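At this stage, I wrote out one protein's amino acid sequence and its backbone structure tokens, and that material follows here:
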Amino acid sequence: KDSKACHSDLITFIQIYLQDNHVYTTSLDGIVRVWNYSYITSFYNDDQQECTHVDIEPSYEKITNKRCSFAKPIQLLPKDDRSFPYHFYAQDIKGGIWILDLELKKNPDPWTKLYSCHNGPLRDMSPSPGGHYLATLGPEGKLKVYCYTIKRAVVMKQFNDQGVSLLWLPFQVDPTGNTIVAGFRSGILRMMVVKVQHTGEKPISEMASVIQIIKPHSSAITVLSINRAGNLLITGSKDKSIFLHSFDKNETTIVPLGMVKMPGAVTHLTWDPAKARNRFLVSCDNGQVVQIILDNENNKIIKEACNNTGTYLMKLRQTVTQAFRKKGKPRSPSQFFSKYMAKDLIWIEDKFSRHRHNYLYKIGGPPVAKLNISDGQSVQCVVELLGGKYMALGLNNGVIKLIKKGVKSCDFSDSWQIVMHATRNCNITKLCLSYDHKILYSCGTDSGIFAYKVKLKSDRDIKPLYLTTLTELPKCTTKNPNCPVLSLSLEEERIEQKKERLQEKHRISVGTFKQRLSCLLTTYYELVETNKALPKCLRIPKAFFRLQTQEERMLEKRKILAKEYNILAPLRARRQKLFERVHTFKKYFIDPIKTQKFYVFAIRKPNYLKSFPERRLFSKDPFGEEIDPVVTEREKRWEELFSGLEPKTQ
């Protein structure tokens, strides 16, 4: 009405009921409206060629209820049930699936939430070390734990921060296997304990408890990775750094060790699968891949960093490999990941590259070969199966490619593909295996999570492992663990503590100086009073007790320097005259002669040789005038001090 739009945002659904003359519309503005269809069609006829503007008001409207947390509807789908023709399935913008009753009656059925899922692109997930459980963290800050056996979520917890990375800690860190570490966009790292149980139909948010909150980074934590031994946790962030942590196994807490600066924002981190080589690769958004070997030298640096209370920063020995990037265009940040292929060879992949080339690099050197591994698609993630005999690749078109490695290390011809995720504008962001390598999980930017049974024959059997059933959850360490209560990162806290220590030291020194000055002033006034009590003939003049001002001290200093200048002036003049005489002597008697006159006398006979002086072709002073640096420095100092004053100030 009055030339206003039917909705204030995008209309996501239209349904026409001819028998009731109703038109149902929903929009992202969160309003469901019903319009009179016969009233709209009354303005149109067969002879009319152009559209006519119709002023109309809705017959009914329903605003989303904030109490039931129903958000803006993205899409509606009729239930297709004759008993309930006005029931619709609705998907809201927060990832909820609802059943709506839109029938125009006095007491419609209440809107019911059937299912809740993530409402954005999933970036990370992590399987449990025992049992078939999978933890996921969405960009809306929702943590969910799914059970593959019963095909539903069993734990759900909401945080007021955007989730980025996730890691379920192994049994080496927590013998119960119930500890999860999550990284968020604010740079906060949360450690939590989950209590998995299958009672009830809905996931219980009280089954997860945060036990530790630290902030190792000032920006989003993009990578969480733990070594094979389970004693070193590494976090990577967009703030161009990685942070090394250890674990206190008595209390199951994270202990920060030190921070290492990287050449770019960290996008991926991988360990060498070989047990003998304790090293890892860090991929950055500028195409540089850094290898760090945890040898004796670097381990010594890490131990020294633990004892350093001034800063967490440490410098480890690194080997940098630059990935190939097309020249001629500005190099914008991208997403890279890397993988060890041999002892000295690594595979570096650009997830957003349009060239779709897979290159094999020598560590610290240029590319040595091109891998035909992804059929022109960019690889987003990779996971090995059966000890490296197979590789599963997640591609940028939503396809999972399974490759059986050939006899040669670069033979990837034996492969097959499976399509589960959306194939348009969808990337598979993570692939992971269950602890027994029998289930493969995948997630993508389409918010989809899929599980696949792995039917490949394994050479060894893995014993079944189970999570310990907890009777109660540990208490939270903070009053409100959902909110990012930490404003400073660990390194920023240490910098602030160092500043506070320096300020405290300065305050103590200033206080000591003031106390000493107060004692001297007290003594000074006592002397003045004592002097006044003496007879006039024995009193010291008042000028002796008068304290000089700063201007008087500067004036006295200038007088001393002027006096010094006047004393040294004759010496400088005499020295200048001597320099002129030496220069004149050299100019007329030494410089014009190329060789000096000399005699060579015989010893046994009265014979001798005599040389004749040879003149130079050009008269040039090869030595020049000698300049004394001490004199030059003093002249500059005198010019600064006596600027604006007479040279003979008394």
About this structure: The helical segments are 37-41, 296-307, 490-533, 542-545, 550-590, 629-641. The radius of gyration is 41 Å.
